[in-house]
Amino acid sequence: MDWGKERSDAWMKAFILSFMGSISVVETLQIFVLGVVLAAIFSLPFLARPPAIPKDDLQLNLWNTTAPKKLLRPATVNLKSAKKKKELNKKSASTLMEFVLLLASVALLFYAAQMDKDTLAFHERQTLSIKILNDFDAIRTPDQLYSWLEEVLLPTLHPSSWYNGRKMRYLDRQFAHNTAAFRIGPVHLTQMRQHPGTMAKEKHAGRGWDVQPGNTSCISWRFLFPAPSNHPNYSSDCNNIHSLDFPLGYGTAMSFINALKDYEYLDEYTESFTIDINFYNPNLKLFSVVHMVIDQSEIGSLMPEAKTTLFRLFQYESANDYTSLFLHIVFTLLFLVIHFKEVKSVVDTGWVYFTSPWNAVGWFSLICTATTISVFIKRYAVAADTLALVARSNGDLGFQDFVDLTTAAWWDACFKHVLGITVFINTISLLRIVRFSQTIGKLLALPGIMKEEILSFLVVAVVAFTAFISSGYLVFGSHIESYSDLYQTTYALFEMMLGRFFANEMLDSNPITGPIFFSTFMICIFILLMNFLMTIICDAISADVDVTHDRELADHVWRSFNAMLGFHSPPNNQDKAGEPKLEELQANLRLLQEGLDESLDICNSILPQDNRSRVNVRTRKCQTRASQKQSCPVIDTECKVTIHIEPASDTDSEV
């Protein structure tokens, strides 16, 4: 406590660095140097003494050593087995290399996908939506829109004081109220109007909307302001799309809204009205675009809709950015290597290569990866151009002009969608490498096993689901919002099929038809069809199907992996079948025949063939003299053993 925080932190940092350096570096180097010195000393020639063996012990060992009586001939070389083992080694090395390349590319894809994502982006979007879009959904008339602009939007965009009443500086007022995002340029308004044609509109003392004179091919509206200072950056075209910007000051912006209200900027000829506001959060380095659309429906009220988009316009500036650039280059090189291997496989095998579904998945992943790289380059170019426009619009008192960030936001969203599809396909492609496993092969073969049942089930399910969609839309379309159109009805019924439903809304809309529709749907779809689908899947899993997979490759890879770790397992004789097992049987029979021949040779050496006809031995004493004179033959006949080895036929090998 006497040292203070900074000196304490410095002492702790120095202590940890010294302690870790001493343990990890200094002492390790000392042990290593000491070991090298001792090894060099004890390996000197004059210190190395040969082992002394007494001469008597050496002679005794030589006399006691016996040579084998017979040297067996070496076993015949199994050329087919050696060739097959060589092919398995080559195939396993190729499979391992392909797996490493795919795994590295997928890992880099995951990094690229997470690089631009920020965990606080969701909270930033929620904060802007709550502050900017407060009570925006309640707008139904032009007067409510003008009131919302005056009471909600302008105080949020032009705060005057902090939460404690302290006055804000001019640059501080560029930040939205109670947020860390400041405005980039003024608020941009865009209105799309109906084509004037022969329509006429009464003007208010020469102000408001009027038909701009011109040729018949380009007749458009023109909005005349009461004062030139209140209509900055007004523009219109022949498509009757009119845009203008809010003034940057709070007072002039309030006068501008009053002018729009007094001279009926929104009238019966307005089709849609949009408000665009750009923000930037320097802490998160995120751009935000708040896009609000107000459509004038045919029922006479305004229908508001808003969307907040967050994205990042990055450039390679900091050390982390250059690290990302290096990883992007490595990923591109990996993509080129994988692409070269696939092209080589296509050239070697021809069009037969595409008959395998996994090869088609591999090529589809390559196409998605190439598309992702192209979209990334385009996104980077658009981001650079947009940042240049933003930099040019920056003045001494903030950003003076509105910059359209819609294109940059669209390309960013496009890149994220394409990247998501690419990550998914490349991750699924990893199963292409491990498909030789029996369990994985059977799992991947499930769609082929149950394809007939699944097709029949899909036909029945589509017909039944379409019937419920049509009836639900017709019955509840005018009563429940989730059934207001076919898309919403399909989405609501799909949620009901998954177990999420709102029965009270159906009951309130129609106390008779609602329960009948709900009960029928739950019985037919949720209970019967879903259980039929689960039964089909369970039967396919339990079915004993011969799955085509390279089991020998899997066993070889597993044995090689165990051998690398020092684990050795005895050979499994049950795994051998066919010709290798027949060859092993023939080798065992040959060894048996050689052993029998050796035994017969020993018999011939002990009892020659000419003395084997009559060999008498003396028996033990018996009770009678006659029994003492009896003799019995020991070996009376000659034994001959012959083993015939015949190759097995196809039918025998199958049995």
Automatic annotation (TrEMBL):
Keyword Membrane: yes
InterPro entries linked to this entry: PKD1_2_channel (IPR013122), PKD_2 (IPR003915), Polycystin (IPR051223), Polycystin_dom (IPR046791)
Subcellular location: Membrane
Domain (Polycystin) ranges: 246-313
Domain Polycystin cation channel PKD1/PKD2: 319-540
PANTHER family hit by this protein: LOCATION OF VULVA DEFECTIVE 1, POLYCYSTIN FAMILY MEMBER
Protein name as annotated: Polycystic kidney disease 2-like 2 protein
Source lineage: Eukaryota, Metazoa, Chordata, Cephalochordata, Leptocardii
Gene: LOC118423296
